[in-house]
Amino acid sequence: MEREFLSRRFADGEDAAVLRRAILDHRNQLHVSPHSGAEDDRKSRLRDCSDTLEYFCKVVTDLGERLGPVLFQLPPTFKKDADVLSSFLRELPSIRAAFEFRHKSWFDDEIFDLLCSRNIALCIADTDTIATPKKITADYGYLRLRREDYTEEDVKRWSEFVREQKTNWPDAFVYFKHEESGIGPKLARQMIGVLGES
Asked: What's the CATH code, domain 2-196?
């Protein structure tokens, strides 16, 4: 049923980028204090999710060429664990994907090299709480611009960054925040306008 819905929903040529937070973050989330093993539980879910991951990938790959990158978003309390990430990447089929790390301990060359080895994008996120390094790890880009106070100059600056990656990124997937004020579409139009000038 999910597969039929996806195929019908995007039959008109739209591309679909998918956020897969459930495997890593909210699926069976335990609401416990930081000292009661919650971190170990998160690690085991990232490590022991091959059946769920396999099913999920079967469903989304029905989108065929319309499938954009799948975003895997880690919890902000989940600190760097290269072994867990490496194990997960071994289970991940060959699809375009991006990883959004929300704890700064992940931002080092060991993690960037792991992503590069699989041509997986580091999600470059700009939020009120963290700014991801502008590190290129794949032949496509994935940006989440999550602040609501972007000025025209900010949009131009991010547009320039995307334009500068033209030789690295035939495709760039850029997402502005849209939940609260609904300003995301306006910012996206501004960026499209700036990029269209080149």
From this structure: 3.20.20.410
